[in-house]
């Protein structure tokens, strides 16, 4: 018996890609794409940058408006799923109605995590995840000369750079010893921190948020964990996200820091799959169970899940990559650097364009680049092929790393005498 109807819950990058891939792979049945937002599905990364900077904010659509009709995708916008009945294979909606399915794909994503401190309910305390949040930030900016960004991760540093470019006085609070500490090497972290400070951003590391204070219901200042008081007419929270697992958990699906899935992205319930920010799985490259939050991961998982769902299994071997635009710095990362024991620099950090190759023993784990897109693209090919460049070759600016993909490596005379 064939698959008559597939429902996808979530209209972010993973959900839309799942719908597109199912049609591209030949699915001819009914296809429903369900989302809580009323806008057509759109790219989220620009919300922290151009959406805030442009005179007129524009959404960048994931697919043209006519894509859904042309591909017979029934887009149910502004609809909130309140419950999943795995045994009965049906969805229940908050405002009434049900939808049956033969297969279900959960692409419910994640939401901003909020700190457990006083004052988060004050006007002017915001987080960024969707268009409504972006519009709220735009509305708050004219009256906000002083902005405090809580969290020195990707979203926090992107927003801080945007606010600084808009002429605001910006302070970043980061509880860890350095910004981007969980994501990049110390050298990259320090380099980006120096660039941020040079642009006028104040960075306070090793201290978190203790309280937010206001007057007449609106934020006026914050207190740090070490007792400092900073003025703030706008506080933006960027301390990470929490996966939206509530629907799955209530339906009895297994989860662990996300909805648990197997190598085919199947959950513990027959005929229910999960992809994107919400999915927890054993990553082939990292060799451990994890949950990745990135556009690339969401779309690659969606493509793979669609193939498995239609009986065309193939091993999931996508190499994870990420990016972050912070002012004039384009940070790109490929691979997963768990437990590295050596960082090797290629290029000159003083030039503002360089790369860090991260190793564990002789194994290349990841490559981080600042304003060196060619190294990033090369890194994606090297990691996909399982090739680890000799450390001496990486250090030598004259060595052609691309030759490793072709066979015999081509090194300069100096490469032969550089010690590893």
Automatic annotation (TrEMBL):
Which domain of life does this protein belong to? Bacteria
Gene3D superfamilies per the UniProt record, alphabetical: 3.30.390.30, FAD/NAD(P)-binding domain (3.50.50.60)
- Cite a single Pfam family from the UniProt record: Pyr_redox_2
Which SUPFAM superfamilies does the protein's record reference? FAD/NAD(P)-binding domain, FAD/NAD-linked reductases, dimerisation (C-terminal) domain
| Residue ranges annotated for the Reductase C-terminal domain, each copy included | 321-405
**EC number(s) recorded for this UniProt protein:** 1.18.1.3
Q: Which cofactor does it need?
A: FAD
Please give the InterPro entries that the UniProt record associates with this protein.
FAD-oxidoreductase/Apoptosis, FAD/NAD-bd_sf, FAD/NAD-binding_dom, FAD/NAD-linked_Rdtase_dimer_sf, Reductase_C
Q: Specify the FAD/NAD(P)-binding domain's residue ranges.
A: 5-302
User: Tell me, what is one Gene Ontology molecular-function annotation carried by this entry?
Assistant: ferredoxin-NAD+ reductase activity
Keywords, comma-separated and alphabetical: Dioxygenase, FAD, Flavoprotein, Oxidoreductase
Would you tell me the Gene Ontology cellular component terms?
cytoplasm
The identity of this protein, by name, is 3-phenylpropionate/trans-cinnamate dioxygenase ferredoxin reductase subunit
Q: Which organism is it from?
A: Kaistia hirudinis
> What are the leading ranks of the lineage?
Bacteria, Pseudomonadati, Pseudomonadota, Alphaproteobacteria, Hyphomicrobiales
């Amino acid at each position: 018996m064939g698959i008559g109807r597939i429902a996808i819950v979530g209209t972010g990058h993973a959900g839309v890609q799942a719908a597109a891939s199912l049609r591209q792979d030949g699915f001819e049945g009914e296809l429903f794409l369900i989302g809580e937002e009323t806008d057509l599905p759109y790219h989220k990364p620009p919300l922290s940058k151009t959406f805030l900077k442009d005179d007129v904010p524009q959404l960048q659509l994931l697919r043209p408006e006519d894509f859904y009709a042309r591909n017979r995708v029934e887009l149910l916008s502004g609809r909130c799923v309140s419950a999943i009945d795995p045994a009965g294979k049906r969805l229940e909606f908050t405002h009434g109605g049900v939808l049956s399915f033969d297969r279900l794909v959960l692409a419910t994503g994640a939401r901003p995590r909020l700190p457990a401190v006083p004052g988060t309910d004050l006007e002017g305390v915001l987080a960024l995840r969707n268009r409504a949040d972006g519009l709220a930030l735009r509305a708050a900016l004219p009256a906000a000369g002083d902005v405090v960004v809580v969290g020195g991760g990707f979203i926090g540093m992107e927003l801080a750079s945007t606010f600084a470019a808009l002429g605001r006085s910006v302070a970043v609070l980061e509880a860890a010893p350095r910004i981007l500490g969980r994501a990049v090497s110390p050298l990259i972290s320090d380099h980006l921190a120096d660039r941020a400070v040079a642009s006028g951003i104040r960075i306070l590391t090793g201290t978190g948020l203790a309280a937010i204070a206001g007057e007449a219901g609106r934020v006026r200042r914050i207190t740090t964990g070490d007792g400092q008081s900073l003025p703030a007419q706008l506080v933006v929270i960027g301390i990470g996200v929490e996966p939206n697992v509530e629907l799955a958990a209530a339906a009895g699906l297994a989860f662990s820091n996300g909805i648990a899935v197997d190598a085919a992205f199947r959950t513990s319930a027959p005929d229910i799959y999960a992809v994107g920010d919400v999915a927890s799985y054993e990553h082939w490259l990292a060799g451990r169970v994890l949950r990745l939050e990135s556009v690339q991961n969401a779309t690659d998982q969606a493509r793979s899940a669609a193939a498995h769902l239609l009986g065309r299994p193939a091993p999931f071997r996508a190499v994870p990559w990420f990016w972050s635009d912070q002012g004039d710095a384009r940070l790109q990362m490929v691979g997963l650097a768990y437990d590295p024991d050596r960082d090797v620099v290629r290029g000159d950090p003083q030039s503002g364009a360089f790369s860090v190759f991260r190793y564990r023993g002789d194994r290349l784990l990841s490559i981080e680049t600042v304003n060196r897109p060619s190294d990033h693209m090369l890194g994606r090919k090297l990691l996909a092929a399982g090739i680890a460049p000799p450390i001496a070759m990486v250090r030598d600016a004259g060595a052609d790393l691309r030759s490793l993909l072709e066979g015999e490596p081509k090194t300069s005379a100096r490469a032969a005498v550089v010690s590893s």
